[in-house]
């Protein structure tokens, strides 16, 4: 297929398959984080927040999970940081939430690590 012919093809969405060590615990974690679970069929749970979504899979490989990263671009990283910090997930799931920091690549962001070791970078462009 030539590059020119791809220009006429439309896309509608791209989603990552996020690994989960303990599927039920991870589903609850993402619900507590504020995502909505729309479905759960055959070891794949569909989560969304606004127009952003991902698929949580009942699959765990330590090296894969601990090197898996997601990036969520938001309009107000400080508000997200306040909400995530107040949610109680750090205590309930023994996960880490970093401080909000201005990054040299032009983002204001913070990091959340999920119960399976997946790193989420939540930030806004500055």
Fill in the keyword field for this structure.
126 residues, single chain, 34% strand, 2,3-Dihydroxybiphenyl 1,2-Dioxygenase, domain 1, alpha/beta, four-stranded mixed beta sheet
Describe the structure.
The chain has 126 residues and is of the alpha/beta class. Helices cover 28% and strands 34% of the residues. Strand 7 and strand 8 (119-125) form a beta hairpin. The longest helix is centred in the first third of the chain and has 11 residues, at 23-33. The radius of gyration is 16 Å and the shape is globular. The protein starts with a helix and ends with a strand.
Helical fraction = 25-40%
Number of helices: 5
Q: Output the radius of gyration.
A: 16 Å
CATH structural fold name: 2,3-Dihydroxybiphenyl 1,2-Dioxygenase, domain 1
Give the second-level CATH assignment, the architecture: Roll
Secondary-structure element order, N to C = HEHEEEHEHHEEE
Largest sheet: 4 strands, mixed
Strand line-up in the sheet with most strands: 1-4-3-2
Total strands: the figure is 8
User: Which regions contain 5 or more consecutive residues with pLDDT less than 50?
Assistant: none
Terminal-residue CA separation: 38 Å
CATH classification, class level? Alpha Beta
How is the quaternary structure best described?
single chain
Tell the overall outline. Answer: globular
What structural class results from the helix and strand content? alpha/beta
Mean pLDDT: 95
CATH homology superfamily = 2,3-Dihydroxybiphenyl 1,2-Dioxygenase, domain 1
Count of distinct structural domains = 1
Portion in beta strands: 25-35%
């Amino acid at each position: 297929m030539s590059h020119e012919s791809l220009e006429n093809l439309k896309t509608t969405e791209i989603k990552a398959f996020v690994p989960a060590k303990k599927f039920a615990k991870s589903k609850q974690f993402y619900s507590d984080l504020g995502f909505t679970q729309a479905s759960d069929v055959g070891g794949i749970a569909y989560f969304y927040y606004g127009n952003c979504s991902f698929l949580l899979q009942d699959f765990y490989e330590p090296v894969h999970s601990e090197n898996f990263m997601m990036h969520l671009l938001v309009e107000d990283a400080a508000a997200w940081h306040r909400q995530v910090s107040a949610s109680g997930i750090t205590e309930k799931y023994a996960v880490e939430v970093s401080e909000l920091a201005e990054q040299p690549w032009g983002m204001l962001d913070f990091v959340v690590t999920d119960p399976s070791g997946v790193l989420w970078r939540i930030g806004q462009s500055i």
